[in-house]
Specification:
Layout (H helix, E strand, L loop, with lengths): L2 E5 L5 E5 L4 H10 L6 E4 L6 H12 L3 E5 L2 E5 L7 E2 L1 H4 L9 H8 L1 E5 L12 H9 L3 E5 L2 E5 L7 E3 L8 H11 L5 E5 L5 H12 L3 E3 L5 E5 L7 E3 L5 H13 L3 E5 L7 H9 L3 E5 L2 E5 L9 E2 L11 H8 L5 E5 L8 H7 L4 E5 L2 E5 L8 E3 L3 H13 L3 E5 L2 H6 L3 H7 L3 E5 L4
Parallel strand pairs: 2-15, 3-14, 6-7, 10-11, 18-19, 22-23
Antiparallel strand pairs: 1-23, 1-24, 3-5, 4-5, 7-9, 8-9, 11-13, 12-13, 15-17, 16-17, 19-21, 20-21
Helix pairs in contact: 1-2, 1-7, 4-6, 5-6, 6-7, 8-10, 8-12, 10-12, 11-12
The protein binds uridine-diphosphate-2(N-acetylglucosaminyl) butyric acid.
Amino acid sequence: MYRFIVAGGRPLRGTVQIASAKNAVLPILAACLLTEETCTITNLPMLEDVNTMLRLLRSMGVTVERKGRSARITAGGRVATEAPYDIVRKMRASYYVLGPLVARFGQARVSLPGGCAIGARPVDLHLRGMSGLGAKVTIEHGYIDARAKRLAGAPMMLAGAKGPSVGATANTMMAAALARGETVISGAACEPEIVDLADFLNCLGAKVSGAGTPELRIRGVRRLGGAEYRPIPDRIEAGTFAAAACITGGDVEIRHCRPDHLTAMLDVLRRAGARVETGRGSMRIAGSGRVNAIDITTAPYPGFPTDLQAQFTALLATARGTSVVTESIFEGRFLHAMELLRMGARIDVKGSTAVIHGVEKLSSAQVMASDLRASAALVLAGLAAGGTTEVLRIYHLDRGYERLEKKLTGLGAKVERAGSPG
Ligand code: EPU
């Protein structure tokens, strides 16, 4: 398996270019199933999760012509309506084919994704969305089976005990796009990736309004057409480089990003004492010495993203003073804290709260990545530590960060990939 070897202690300096958002691209690729016409998605990020989604579409009989960063996708001929366990277990976001399949073909059989390193991750809200549109949903032999002659639009409340769900909102919005009549989703997720999916669907001829607010309205249409579409930049990748700039006391210009999608994070950075400048489509983040301790609570958008919690936990591990980080979305998402302890961090995790007593310097160690964002946090810690850190199980990183070691090297870090794909 690949691992990263990170020589710490070099401030990052220079310019880095952000890729398109993984979490916008994945539902957009699945949404191509809603039409028989060709959709061209441009500026695709070179990520393992994108490869997996394209592999899933191909396995269903969809024509996928990929040329570098573009993919032409045509779900024109016979489409198999099953997403097998073999693919879904590699990437939970495979469940994004559920809504499009049942809406266009009247049936879908999608493997249940099962557990995951960051928490329980139930799918009850996805099922609520499909049933709410009139599908008959059953769970058998580890698969979700959803059937309907034609879905029927309806009002529904889609938030759960933890608040809105990005995935369930996206799945239901895609399904409702081809349903008869109007669907009103209350308690909808407001994430920029939801807005991007709505924009894409509208390019195909859908009638979605209210995206970015808790109330989404979708007037169903009979059929959708094709389009060419370029997804939004990845706010989590941008936020990860911002944290990397600060933890190393560097100065980094982050290009092709949307600072307006990162308001909560930029506010945290400013209050922690970083220098933040934002422009149109770019931002410059500079740290000088240790940041100030600060409390963070993750929340649905526009709150502080759970997908940046691990990276900021690493940053605060070297802050001046004591910070409290509360994870309100995925209660199990603190495995990185246990690895950071091995690097000399002082973190007490109790339930969904981490109390972080900042130390002056982290020390290098061999550490193990448990999920995508935890991996990024460990790489950041390695960049700031004295000595050489080895981060094992880097395959998690490749799912969601495009050539992270190359981008970091471009900023003056010393990060090498070692080992084999595994
Ligand atoms: N939830 C339910 N029932 C459901 C679905 C979700 O109770 O049916 C709960 C979850 O357990 C969680 C909360 O609702 O407590 C929010 O989960 P959500 O459904 O919004 O998460 P998701 O759609 O599965 C996406 C991203 C995650 C990101 C979360 C939260 C994709 C492919 N994944 O997941 O990204 O953390 O939204 O913003 O878009 C990552 O990129 O590293 C990642 C994990």
